[in-house]
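Entry for adenosine-5'-triphosphate complex. Fields follow.
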Amino acid sequence: MIRCENIFKSFDETEVLKDISIVFESGKNNLIIGKSGAGKTVLLKILVGLLNPTSGKIWYDGHDFTSLNHKELQKLRNEVGMLFQGSALFDSMTVEENIRFPMDMFTKKTKKEKKNRVNYCLERVNLEGINDQFPSEISGGMQKRVGIARSIVMEPNYLFCDEPNSGLDPKTSIVIDELISNITYDDNITTIINTHDMNSVLEIGDNINLLHNGKLAWQGTKSEVLKSQSEELVDFIFASPFLKKLRGQAIDEL
Ligand SMILES: Nc1ncnc2c1ncn2[C@@H]1O[C@H](COP(=O)(O)OP(=O)(O)OP(=O)(O)O)[C@@H](O)[C@H]1O
């Protein structure tokens, strides 16, 4: 579980996060959604420690993140997996080398142990046997799955996903969502996903947090989305007149 309390963030005179308090539960898909510029990326960066909040507190399972010493912080970083926008694979490395990279950097595992772990992670994302291929030789969806395999290679307790579906077609997006979701449930990971994707919200949104102009505008679950009267939520999820009409019809049929 990750908890943030009363997070404020300003750049110069501009306040971009205003009093954000959220509990991100373990074993759940915790979504941060909102329009472009709402503050999602800034919040995600604060949660992983890439940016300092102007004020506020963050706890990782009871550990006060803002007051950890260097050694404690390093230990915690090894428990964090990151899935970056656009996969961020190294083009010059094979799939296996990409997935192995965090273990090469941060562990003393033997070659055999690393190989076994790479193979296990490839199996988890249904990509057995592509160890020796290069990122340029596989599709965008497969690259994303390799990115997921790399993000879980260190057996993280916390998984951060920044726009995991960007650039993917709706069907492939669903495959990616299901993978992230299954891994989250199976391994009881605290997963935080920054997304614009309406399908993700409705498919895997266990805890949804809507940011609007730097404020927490709505919280709820995927099953609460349809009936919510929150103007900001309806405007974000059902953005077009056509979707608003469909929403109206769906509510009438409930
Ligand atoms: N380093 C920075 N310096 C100054 N302003 C910043 C900085 N980083 C972000 N901002 C501002 O903070 C606000 C929130 O930005 P953020 O990137 O978090 O939005 P977002 O919700 O992630 O948008 P998108 O969906 O487009 O990525 C924006 O107004 C942005 O210009």
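NOTE: The mean pLDDT is 92.
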